[in-house]
What does this fold into?
Amino acid sequence: MGGIIVVIMVVFISVMVRKVAAVALRLTGLDKPTAEFQALSALTGTGFTTRESELVLEHPKRRQIISILMIIGNAGTVAVIAGLVSSFVTVTSVWAVLRFGILVVALYLIYKIATHTRITRVLSRKIEKRLKDRFKLQRRAIGKVLDTGDGYGVAEITLDERSPSVGKTLATSELGKKKFLVLAIERQDENIPVARGNHKLHAGDILICYGSFEEMGEIG
It folds into this structure.
């Protein structure tokens, strides 16, 4: 029975590790679907597409997160195999069926918890807060709209309230030193279809930009 417990614990821990890693990857500037897919791919060792490999390799923090996931994933695979072997190989058929039933029920419950919308939303917020407090990370909110290749394209950037650009005009902010152009600004009470240097930036502004995805990911 100890082997079954090990398998259940490893699966549960893997689910939690994937959730933490996905949030951490989102804080580096990846959108939610890409962050979650990359975390799952690294943890299970299934690999990435060419484009997603570039997204990881070009960013040191992402490489670090993915490397940790790969190590944990390999260790978890070994633990699961060992637990399954010890639980089913040396027992009678009746006990094997019972243990298999317990395993299926436990995995189903973990799946339901991991995919429950409200639980995952609350958990993500708590993880994000802890990561920000512990590692001084700040969300880099960038949503890709159009990828033109070679790391360039159109994206939406949401300005965080702690961004040094907040309160400054577009011309005097740090944005003018980056490898991208701010094309338009969207905010709750108005839309600015053509952004100019004298427009003042507010917390929560959504900037429509064209340029380097890497440098856009550094703004928040």
